[in-house]
Design goal:
The complex is a heterodimer of chains A (309) and B (343). Chain A is an alpha/beta fold and 309 residues long. Chain A has twelve helices and 15 strands. Chain B has two domains: 155 residues, 2-Layer Sandwich (Beta-Lactamase), CATH 3.30.450; 91 residues. In chain B, 18% of the residues are buried. Classes of the chains: A alpha/beta (309), B alpha+beta (343).
Amino acid sequence: MNKRGLYGVFALMFLLLPLFLFSCKKTDEKTVAVDLKKEIRTQRDNDLNNRQSIRIAVAAVISPKETAVYYDEMMKYVSRKLERPIELIQRKTYQEINDMLERKELDLAFVCSGPYVTGHDKFGMELLVAPMLYGKPFYQAYFIVHRNSPIKDIEGLRGKRFAFTDPNSNTGKLVPTYVLSKTGETPETFFKEVIYTYSHDNSIKAVSKRLVDGASVDGLIWDYCNEKSSECVKGTKIIYKSPLFGIPPVVVHPQTPLAVKESLKKIFLEMDKDPEGKKILSEIRIERFIVPEDSSYNSVREMQKWLKK
Amino acid sequence: MMLVVLFYAVFSIFFVDLYVKKILKEESIEVGESLVAIMSYHIADDLLIKDYVSIEKLFEETMKANKEVAYIFVEQNGRILLNTFSNGFPKELLNIGHKKIAIDYMIVKANNETYYDFSAPIFEGRAGMLRLGLTERMGEKMVKETIKSLIYIALITLIAAFAFSILLSKRLVHPLFLLTDSAVKIAGGDYSRQIEIHGEDEVGKLSAAFNKMEDAVKIREKELREINEEMETVNIKLHEYITELNRTKDELVKSKQDAAVVQTARSMIHHMRQPLTYLIMAIELFTEDIQGGAFNADLIQKRLFAIEEASLKVSDILKKFEQLREYRIVKYSDKTEIIDIGE
């Protein structure tokens, strides 16, 4: 072959080589063949269908993902003790949980103090147990602002953007509304803008990221995040702490069978005596569960009454 | 040129078909992985609180914004919680072997179509798995459109190249033809025609140069012709001179030859004289002796010997003249010139 022919061969190989390279498939790529015409009808997940499991709801005190993480071990523990599966139910608003409990779609619920008072008044929502944290079954609201904010008191929040959690939340809505009403103000007149974050950890994040100028949050949540060295809390500071209120309880429908109520109560009350239970409780800063008094929630009732006037 | 255009058109089509398809596929995979990652994060909370309406809205918006998204669904422990199939869920799509703990994709071939099926765990798998299917249709359509465009461009380019080559050939070939024709005529000696091509371009300049060259050749030929005629005249005269010279030379040669013959003869005579004289003397003496009645053997022998010697000398000289090819004049110190007839 003469020189020209050789150059021609090389040129052709050079031109064709990319074609071979581009046509190479990845070796770890998987391919399957399916027939999309073989269809089935699917039913939406029906909460009422499965009555074998104990349905426990946790109100959106913290965001759903955080709830799933924090309550995961507790639910597994209760399930083992009850020897029945537990289904953890979450909803966006406190009202939905109250409604589900009222309709007996739940066996047990962790609710906020405000919804307990409302539920108790509406359909006799019953206290089962309540957690004790930091030596007391009480908690308070914290008004928080960004740590670099010049705002030092509630008055400094006038004309600013403020975050509530849930419309039915005690510390997240009722308390700041009550505090303002005492000075003749309403959230609409006092603040420039109000948003609802539907969980306390989201309110803390909103303040930390300066999405709002201030928020009212559950003091227990703020303290817990502070202990865990959460980056979000470090971006905030407390400008006001409310008086103490009855801690968010664990409740049941009044018509829950006694046996179920007693079994559940026993498990929660003895949890701190069980090493495994104690470990689970300590992770979420609960010392133990107690049987609360309804009167512990009178302060919440008083605020609701005041605001209804 | 058209072959080149055709070659590049074919090459471009192959290139688009393979390389662009590969790029589009990689992009689709990137888009798909990104979509499922973002969506699985965003729907976690809604899924945990069973806010299916919000999730379905998100699915709807996602499919509107991304035409390549063919389907989305959420499965939890083998149950379908949500899906975007309007007629019913294709059960064969449920368990196709995705990884459970990370974002993953597989190629699904279904009913003459190809999909990239992505899966992502929602909330580390606790809330279920999000599955999303991207169709290859859009990418294939884009490739087909591009190939179509390339074919149109190639055809237009071919037509343009064809027209251009015709124009170019007219512009270049015709003048070259004229130049060639002129060159042939000039070679044949016809200088009558000038090339009528004008212009500022190279062809025009070439034509002008050619015409100048033709004029120059014409002048030089005329000069050469004149010189030639002169040379012919001179040649004729030279010829005459040469003839005269030859004649003179011949005469000279003849006279020289005559002179040489005369000289040779003289030389021969000169050379022969002595031995002949000797021979004559020897014969005379011998005759005298015989007439005198002297039959002395020794004397007779002596005389005979002398005759023999003289005869041999004569014979020798005759032999030498026989071998004579040229004559040389040999001058001796006494100014005697003799022909040396070869030693």
